[in-house]
Design a protein that fits this description.
The chain is mostly helical. The protein contains 13 helices and no strands. Helix 2 packs antiparallel against helix 12 (about 235-255), helix 6 (about 95-110) packs across helix 8 (about 135-155) and helix 11 packs antiparallel against helix 12 (about 235-255).
Amino acid sequence: MRTARTGLELYSQTADDAAAAVINRYSTSFGIATRLLGARPRPHVRNVYALVRVADEIVDGPAHDAGLTPEGERAVLDGLENEVMDAIACGFSANLVVHAFARTARECGIGADLIAPFFASMRTDIDTAAHDDLSHDAYVYGSAEVVGLMCLQVFLNAGMSAPARPAADLVDGARRLGAAFQDVNFLRDLADDADRLGRDYLDGAADDERRTAVLDRIDADLAAAASVIPHLPPDCRAAVTTAHDLFAELSRRLRSSPAGAPRVRVPDGVKATLAARALLGRPPKGSRS
């Protein structure tokens, strides 16, 4: 009979549970996809998502609603990054979400090369209102592509004896899937980003021609990502396929909706169908396989 968890093991499990609560509260789409992961990578992906969400909330409204100035938001964000790096170095944090992420980073080989660009993009949200193509690409790399690379580190290295370097095609696929997710969300939230946050991430994508160009880029990124999903470990493929197909469906619905239409969403029944399709081993939508 297994003895009850105590000490660090109990604390780390509690931290993982806290991270799971974050993703379950904030994202039905990623929550569904994450539940399809095998037991090996699942808690680690939740840990990555939770840290990303907490950082995002510092710059996307809740901190402002609590009365923080932009300078205050920057100080909190800087403190969070420092706490993350300290926790990775020592293996412990009094912040449950940070502790969970640090545990994942230590096991899966997520380092400053991915963490620093993420926090740099989050800082951009504090004082940058509009992006051109160059600043958009830099922002998306830090805010989304590196998150895809963090998840790739989890897929390949969770539960392994030592972190391995991912193949170039998997790196490209992870980056392009992250970029597609981010651009879809930019299009979905175009009005809210402009009205509530005063931001324009897509350099005038309310214009039909510009909007079509963004959707074409999204679909190209999704197609490139789909081609490498079969190269992922088997216990990750259904989850990544589901996430891919949910965003492919969002892209399709955005293309058939005019700019300014209500926020596009995928009905729960369609989400369930896409998840079932992935569980049956069907290839990602848009895949040539």
